[in-house]
Amino acid sequence: MIRGLALRSLCSLRVANLVEYLVGPLGLGLKDSNSYVRMVAAIGVLKLYHISVSTCVDADFPAMLKHLMLHDPDAQVVANCLSALQEIWSLEASSSEEASRDRETLLSKPVIYYLLNRMKEFSEWAQCLVLELVVKYVPSESSEIFDIMNLLEDRLQHANGAVVLATIKLFLQLTLSMTDVHQQVYERIKAPLLTLVSSGSPEQSYAVLSHLHLLVMRAPMLFSSDYKHFYCQYNEPFYVKKLKLEMLTAVANESNTYEIVTELCEYAANVDIPIARESIRAVGKIALQQYDVNAIVDRLLQFLEMEKDYVTAETLVLVKDLLRKYPQWSHDCIAVVGNISTKNIQEPKAKAALIWMLGEYSQDMHDAPYILESLIDNWDDEHSAEVRLHLLTAVLKCFFKRPPETQKALGAALAAGLVDFHQYNVSVAERVVNPPKQAVSVFADTQNSEIKDRIFDEFNTLSVVYQKGQNLQITLFQLRGLEANDKDLLLGTSEKEESRGPINNGSEYSAPMYDGSSVSMAASQTQAELTISNPTLPAHASSLAIDDLLGLGLPVASTPVPSPPPLKLNAKAGLDPGTFQQKWRQLPIASSQEYSLSPQGVVALTAPQALLRHMQGHSIHCIASGGKSPNFKFFFFAQKAEESSTFLVECIINTSSSKSQIKIKADDQSTSQAFSDLFQSALSKFGMP
Amino acid sequence: MLQCIFLLSDSGEVMLEKQLTGHRVDRSICDWFWEHAISQGDSFKLLPVVASPTHYLFQIVREGITFLACTQVEMPPLMGIEFLCRVADVLSDYLGGLNEDLIKDNFVIVYQLLDEMIDNGFPLTTEPNILREMIAPPNIVSKVLSVVTGNSSNMSNTLPGATASCVPWRTTDLKHSNNEVYVDLVEEMDAIINRDGVLVKCEIFGEVQVNSHLSGLPDLTLSFANPSILNDVSFHPCVRFRPWESHQILSFVPPDGQFKLMSYRVKKLKSTPIYVKPQLTSDAGTCRLNVLVGIRNDPGKTIDSIAVQFQLPPCILSADLTSNHGTVNILANKTCSWSIGRIPKDKAPSMTGTLVLETGLERLNVFPTFQVDFRIMGVALSGLQIDKLDLKNLPTRPYKGFRALTRAGEYEVRSQF
Question: Name one GO cellular component term (chain B) (predicted).
Answer without folding.
Answer: endomembrane system
